[in-house]
Amino acid sequence: MTTKKIRNVLEHYKQLDESELVKMLKQGKELALTELINRYQKTVARVVIGMLGNTPEAEDVGQETFIRFWSSVENYRHDAKVSTFLTRIAINLSINELRRRKKRYEWLDFLEDKKYKNITIIESDQYIQTDEQEHITKALASIEPDQRAVVILRLVQGYSTKETADMLEIPLGTVLSRLSRALEKLRIEIIKLEEI
Q1: Last residue of a domain, one of 93, 125, 157
Q2: pLDDT digits (tens, 9 = 90+) for 30-49
Q3: What span, in angstroms and rounded, lies between the C-alpha atoms of 196 and 193?
Q4: Taking the alpha carbons of 181, 182, 185, 190 in that order, is the dihedral positive or negative?
Q5: Alpha helix (H) ranges present in 114-171?
Q6: Which end of the chain, N or C, is less surrounded by CB atoms within 10 Å?
Q7: For residue 39, what are the contacts with CB-CB under 8 A and spacing of at least 6?
Q8: How confident is the model at residue 118 (pLDDT cuts 50, 70, 90)?
């Protein structure tokens, strides 16, 4: 294919709506996935970074989200938006990563208790945050993953309570109670961080 033909094909994919792209993806056309990634990578990144922080694991989970979408595209229901489907995958993968992370830290705590002091954990952000952003990020990291998922979907992504409930497959009342508890914990945690 010549460069001009490739540009024309890519331009054609940009013009398609998401249902047409999914149909083409189901037919094995990988450029459809490329276009979906271009459209939704920022959405997925906001969810994953909100859940995991700006870490290498977050980047891995973001990539894995699209891989899982591609491998499960046959299960995609056209009654939900692609962004909703991707968000659900990203939340599930993020929660799995948080569970793995918790197990790693429990193991490191065990080693520390055994006086193995030569193990260190270095966490670094790849960008500079303002104090306020840093406080919010730390406060978000301090709340339970199920509450964090609700906060990210409702307040960061802007989904409605019903959409959040549908994505997380929980009742509306549970969304509201998790959001309420999370906001109270966030408020307390941010106040503590600002006093430091």
Answers
A1: 125
A2: 889 999 999 999 999 999 99
A3: 5
A4: negative
A5: 131-142, 145-151, 161-168
A6: C
A7: 18, 82
A8: very low
